[in-house]
TrEMBL record:
GO terms for molecular function: isochorismatase activity. The keyword Hydrolase applies. It comes from the Bacteria. This is Isochorismatase family protein. Keywords: Hydrolase. The keyword Hydrolase applies. Residues 30-205 form the Isochorismatase-like domain. Pfam families: Isochorismatase (PF00857). InterPro entries: Isochorismatase, Isochorismatase-like_dom, Isochorismatase-like_hydrls, Isochorismatase-like_sf.
Length: 210
């Protein structure tokens, strides 16, 4: 019922064909670092691909955003989750971080620790928008582009991109700054975003466009 141990796989590097050709603009963008907590990373061998590349690429993107004044939002699931708060997640994934044995795995990994001005928001469901003020925050910042990085590509990252589409927020799904249960899941999520709700780009393309 819980998240299984996840096998290593090569980080993909070739984006699928996109239906849209949105230009990424620093003045409109927000960087999302999605669920990069010890609990989720510990499902992998963190010394094997795709994890080293995942972390390195998010670090590069975060550094560029800091240089350009692009806001950064982190999501992190809490350890304190009442049954009614966790809801159907329990049916699919067990207790998750609300299981006391994982209480020390809630933090974002050290390599990507939030800076003082970064925004850390509690994550309640697959979408980063659910139960948060992220939508209102982006509107207040007058920003309507979301650079999506983190884990897991075919669950929370994909769902966030889809909900962003519903709100006229352009998602940029950074192919090689995401990780997933498998290469198949990773590519499926990328194809869906590219064809239905966002634009898939690489880390190098993101850095070049910002």
């Amino acid at each position: 019922m819980s998240i299984p141990t996840l096998a290593s796989y090569p980080m993909p590097s070739q984006p699928p064909q996109n239906r849209v050709q949105w230009p990424l603009e620093a003045s409109r963008a927000v960087l999302l670092i999605h669920d990069m907590q010890h609990y989720f990373l510990n499902k992998y061998d963190r010394h094997s691909e795709p994890i080293p590349t995942l972390i390195q690429h998010i670090q590069q993107l975060k550094a560029r955003c800091a240089e350009l004044g692009i806001p950064v939002i982190y999501t992190a699931q809490p350890t304190e989750q009442a049954p009614e708060q966790r809801g159907l997640l329990t049916d699919f994934w067990g207790l998750g971080l609300s299981d006391p044995q994982y209480a020390d795995q809630q933090a974002v990994i050290d390599e990507l620790a939030p800076a003082e001005n970064d925004r850390l928001q509690t994550k309640w469901r697959y979408s980063a928008f659910y139960g948060s003020d992220m939508r209102a925050t982006m509107a207040n910042w007058q920003r309507d582009q979301l650079i999506i990085t983190g884990i897991y590509a075919h669950i929370g990252c994909l769902t966030t991109a889809l909900e962003a589409f519903m709100d006229n927020i352009q998602s940029f799904f950074v192919l090689d700054a995401l990780a997933d249960f498998s290469l198949e899941d990773h590519l499926m999520a990328s194809r869906y975003v590219a064809q239905r709700c966002g634009k898939v780009i690489t880390t190098a393309q993101t850095l070049q466009q910002l």
